[in-house]
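Kindly draft a polypeptide, keeping tokens residue-aligned:

***
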Amino acid sequence: MIIAVIGGGAAGFFAAIHSSGPGIRVLLFEKSPKLLSKVKISGGGRCNVTHRPIEISKLVKNYPRGEKFLKKAFAHFSIPDTFSWFESRGVSLKIEEDGRVFPKSNSSQTIVNCLEDEARKLGVQIQVSNGIKSIQRKDQGYILITDRGEVAVSKVIVASGGHPNLGAYDYLNLLKHKLIKPIPSLFTFNTPQEPIRELMGVSMGDAVVKLEGTKLSYRGPILITHWGISGPAVLKLSAFGADWLHEQQYRARAIIQWNADLSEQAYSEQLTGYALLHPNRKVYSHPLFGIPARLWEHFCMQADISEAQLFGQLAKKLQNKLVQCLFCYPVAMQGKTTFKEEFVTAGGVALDEIHPETMESRLHPGVYFAGEVLNLDGITGGFNFQAAWTTGYLAGKSAQRS
């Protein structure tokens, strides 16, 4: 039996490894000259392998698209299985405070080497710079039209990743699967008209970002960049708000609560209390609430508070302006910035045409799908890789068995 795997990323390698077995020849096709490129650059070159073990009911809440589908898939291969798989192959993993999981080596190359070594050991035949033009049904199997000619195979696992353009899925046309138009997920909010961009590099560890006019909000770290606002809270909000933001053409207002633990009233009460204790201190030079000095100075300027203003003489009107900056700071979003190498899409092959416990197509026996080519995506924190390991495992095992 010959099994073809299309795509040399995380899901493709995991599928190829788990479809290998006695009497099975596995061919892996990658259209680019590079293998596992997203694995290599993810997590700043450390590779955020997965997330700390959590119950499946909580795990699936981290997927804006694919929650119900993945609930069934994770029943067969979940986070503890990922830990076991890598650690049994000599890759020690560590859990960081925020729940993200990395190799103890702090190098993504450790994960790349593990996957490549396992594939090589199992005899997976890898062809780089050889893309697929079309997949055609023939007799009991399939014909792949590749850049280098035709290849006859028994089964096909499609793990070609997400793409920003619908045209990238043209090679699937003959399978007549329903495709959801891809749109970006996980992106920075561009705020070209906002003065806050001048504070590039400033961050807050625990804030809340909301999209005005929706019920969408997310809590977590925020980072100010020269594009606008980013960081885990913004990226997660962009994932859950991907469809709405796309409809708005990425023009919206985000509201930031800079300290997630404090209410509007708490800000006012603590400012009043501080003024009673330290009436002769200058507001400008004494940041409160864990706000970085540069950001605090920016808020003072926005609230018309002078550098000489003392806490004990701070007028109620100015205090209210400062509280508004702290509790509901508005930023006008005009566009987005995605990072090409780490691009995550919402969209792809419709999930209702795939069996969630095997990853097999409901339209074509012997065709399986895994990873971001499916209309599923997770927020930051290792969730997209976990979906890749799970769907790759199921696609590989199902192709091998049936």
